[in-house]
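PROTEIN DESIGN WORKSHEET
SECTION A - STRUCTURE
LENGTH: 283
TOKENS:
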């Protein structure tokens, strides 16, 4: 009998010590949601630039398949740098009960096409405390407005007091509007969870992936250097061609003509000098 009881206790301890499984790369949060906590999901993914647009489109389609009531795309960006590096992002708002499963499915889909999860940030904000404060403020404002309405209903109320109560009524109305807007925002943050996927060009965090990234960076640098040289040639090429043509024309045609002209001038100027010298010399 003691052996049977010991076996049952041992099996129960083994079952309790087993931790829940979670997807690789994503922090685990016990349960699908935590009451009164508004979460914000952010994932950083690195993959070859040629696959970023397709993965971004797949994530957007996954959101659209859930319908506008459960998932809405709030932002989409796609940028190509001078070296060919691509950076993109996708922002959605998804129902809080679906956020965790949607994020894991998005990461698994990215890993299936060769992406690497380089970062995951799941932050939470305590909305329950703020909601309790807002509810208390709304109750106080409602009580104050009821008191003001009772005072304004008096027939024997002096005009000066009535004017002051009207001012208090306007202030209470503004406070009620602000508190109602805050309550609506708090309910929205609890019902819908913002989620973002950031895509960058890369292959991973291993040594081989880093070497391949270094090779891509070197090729991109060579491309930028060649592009810069072409820009310099495009900017200075036409003036250099004009100068070269001017030098060729001078050497082949103008220089000969100029030399002949100078020779003729020298001959004409040297003849009068020679004749004058001959006449002035003694016989």
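SECTION B - SEQUENCE
RESIDUE ASSIGNMENT:
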């Amino acid at each position: 009998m003691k052996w049977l009881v010991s076996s049952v206790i041992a099996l129960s301890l083994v079952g309790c010590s087993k931790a829940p499984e979670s997807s690789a790369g994503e922090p685990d949060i016990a349960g699908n949601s935590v009451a009164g906590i508004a979460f914000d999901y952010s994932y950083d993914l690195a993959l070859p630039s040629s696959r970023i647009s397709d993965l971004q489109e797949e994530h957007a389609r996954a959101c659209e398949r859930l319908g506008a009531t459960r998932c809405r795309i709030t932002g989409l960006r796609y940028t190509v740098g001078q070296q060919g590096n691509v950076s993109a992002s996708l922002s959605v708002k998804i129902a809080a009960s679906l956020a965790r499963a949607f994020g894991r499915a998005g990461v698994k889909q990215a890993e299936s096409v060769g992406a690497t999860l380089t970062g995951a940030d799941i932050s939470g904000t305590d909305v329950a405390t703020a909601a309790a404060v807002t509810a208390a403020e709304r109750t106080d404002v409602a009580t104050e407005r009821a008191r003001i309405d009772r005072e304004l209903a008096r027939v024997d109320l002096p005009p000066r007091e009535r004017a002051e109560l009207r001012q208090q009524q306007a202030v209470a109305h503004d406070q009620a509007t602000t508190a109602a807007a805050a309550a609506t925002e708090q309910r929205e943050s609890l019902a819908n969870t913002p989620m973002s996927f950031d895509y960058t060009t890369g292959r991973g965090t291993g040594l081989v992936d880093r070497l391949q990234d270094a090779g891509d960076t070197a090729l991109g640098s060579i491309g930028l250097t060649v592009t810069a040289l072409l820009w310099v040639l495009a900017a200075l090429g036409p003036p250099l061609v004009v100068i070269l043509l001017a030098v060729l024309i001078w050497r082949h045609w103008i220089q000969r003509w100029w030399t002949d002209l100078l020779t003729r001038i020298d001959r004409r100027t040297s003849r009068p000098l020679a004749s004058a010298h001959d006449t002035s010399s003694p016989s």
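SECTION C - NOTES
DSSP finds six helices and five strands in the chain.
The two ends are 164 Å apart (CA to CA).
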